[in-house]
Design goal:
seven-stranded mixed β-sheet; 23% helix; globular
Length: 127
Amino acid sequence: MVAAFFFYYNFKFKEYKFIDFSKITLYTKQNIFTPKSNEYYLLLFSSKMENLPYLLKQIPKDKPVLAVDFFQKRVNYPNVIYTTAGINTIIKLIQYLNIYNVPVMLKIKRYHKNLYKQDSPLRILKE
């Protein structure tokens, strides 16, 4: 029984990914993003394809939204930490998180300083 619990715990721990913001550079309109909150909703989308106000209606309001725009517009949007990234960073995020469809949202929670752990499964939002 103990062995089964150990293997299940290992499986669940490895199922969700870590995001290290000291190794990933996200840009806001004026600065490089540094996390301040303990939890975020991470939204990965393209402003060329999706309507951000419609997507935000599908995300709970209890935590800040960290939006990563693949189209790389740099705009200010109310109640959203709007970010862009270089194409290499975007590709790494997509591969690392196993993203096959966008727009997608997931919850992340601080694990240690700039290290965050995925705290929910990927959720594809309706366009």
